[in-house]
Amino acid sequence: MIDFSTTLKNSPVLQVHAHWDPIADATYNLHKNSPENTELFDLSPHEPIREYKGDAFSAFLPSSTVAVGDVWELNLYRVIPFLSQFHPGATGTLRHGQKGAFACLRALSADYADITFRIHAEFTLATRPNPDWKPGSNERQVYLARFIPSQYAGRLRINLKTGTICDFSLSLPPRNSNVDINDFEYADMVFVPRMELFATPTKTPDNIEWKDAITSEEARKKLALKLYKFAEINRCCC
User: Fold this and answer.
1) What pLDDT digit, counting tens, does each position of 54-107 carry?
2) What is the pTM of this model?
3) Do residues 214 and 220 lie in contact, with contact meaning Cβ atoms separated by under 8 Å?
4) With the CA atoms of 208, 212, 218 and 221 taken in that order, what torsion angle do they form, in degrees rounded to the nearest 10?
């Protein structure tokens, strides 16, 4: 078991880089043939480089003691500021799909902790006032364009001796049709090769002797189970 409550208390400022590739493929080419505002999908990081206070990364840590393999829910309000480095329209309030964010302690040694996490979020690219809005009834805004990634997968590695972050990444898995886009009531499935936040301030040894660990695949399955209950059925049938 480990308590992370004070681990990053004195961690220094960390510089995080953002990379966001353009849409490489699409089912209907909505990003090219949209009836209006095609420039909405000509996207790049809002802030290519941003500095974060070390304790900002406590957003990915548990609020109580955990053991390897344990999973905890993340506070989306503390996580979304990281995604806003891509675009200020980042939100954890999904209009469709399974929302949420969870993390898992994947491995632990005397000197290091390795955490895997998964986030479901989207980006509102454009809105306009709803002409039919009335107090207590319809939404104030009409969502004209949205960018909806399938998920974000991330990793946080901490040096427990120094209380510093030695590796951080948060990325869109690079598989086909990894983003849905909506524009003026039209929808499309697209492929974005790379969308990532990353920081590697220090190099960690390649041969860390973990006292306890689960595989990356096991950690990913545990996170999926928290978001999709049907994954438990699939696992039992294997």
Assistant:
1) 999 999 999 999 999 999 999 999 999 999 999 999 999 887 778 899 999 999
2) 0.89
3) no
4) -120
C-alpha to C-alpha distances, 178 to 149, 175, 202, 212, nearest whole angstrom: 6, 6, 30, 33
Q: Are 190 and 31 in contact (CB under 8 A)?
A: yes
The rounded average pLDDT for each run of 10 residues, N- to C-terminus, in the chain (238 residues) is 94 95 90 65 92 96 97 96 96 85 97 97 79 62 80 96 94 92 85 95 86 97 86 46
Q: At what angle do helices 216-227 and 230-237 cross, to 10 degrees?
A: 130
Q: What gap in Å lies between CA 177 and CA 27, rounded to an integer?
A: 8
Q: Strand 186-191's sheet: what is its strand order? A: 25-26, 186-191, 179-183, 141-149, 122-129, 90-91
